[in-house]
Design brief:
3-stranded parallel β-sheet; 268 residues; alpha/beta; 7 strands; TIM Barrel
Length: 268
Amino acid sequence: MIANYHTHTVRCNHAQGEEWEYVEAAIANGLKILGFSDHSPQIFPNGYVSKVRMLPEQLPEYIQTIEHLKKQYGDRIELHCGLEAEYMPEIFGDLLALLRQYPGVEYLILGQHCTANEYDVENPNKWYTYPWDRGEEYKLANYVEQVAAGMQTGKFLYLAHPDVCLFRGDPAVYRKHMRRLCREAKRCGLPLEINAQGLRRKDIADSYPVPAFWQIAAEEGCTAVFGCDAHQPQFAGDAEYTAIMEKVAKDCGIKVLDTLEIKKENWK
């Protein structure tokens, strides 16, 4: 593993450590490229404030911090500034408008943690994808539908933890919907992320990566990328979890991309 594009900071309220500590760990672990992609701010209506992402007013300082690190470490590692964002259809345009104000954000990765819109607390179709171990097909279908719509925007570098919803229902139902997701990812040209964060979760058995999902992804000709999803510095490219991700890819036979091309995005 030489590149990781999935790294968080304390601004999301559930990560630890300073940015420079992540950079130092990445260098020590042999990474050549490190992308920061903390949970993106969103422009929520009605005064809603999320507790799991940075605030809009924190975005300029986030960009400035990473720009400073680029100058400080530029001769030792390639650094990038990105964000991990949900596709929330009603407010996605507001997020793009915010990004147009701050051109230092180089990329977005799609990490769908909830369906509908996060602030819709009374919406019966709004639910968090993890943890979730029920067998309601409509929830799985909602997840795939919203992720597919997000990929179709063309604004995302790749799809993070596509197998984050832990569906315990009929395996045939799971295969049907996840095959649709994989086919859409292939059509949109988006790699799928084999994510290490699920491997570190000890509170739920059989967390992601989900072998059944990755078998489908390989069958559909998708490509994969490794994502540390580091919320603590030591997990930026650590050997233990990298080896497990490599085994997941080898077992299913999916092609893994070592690096990704980050194009300058204008957020139109």
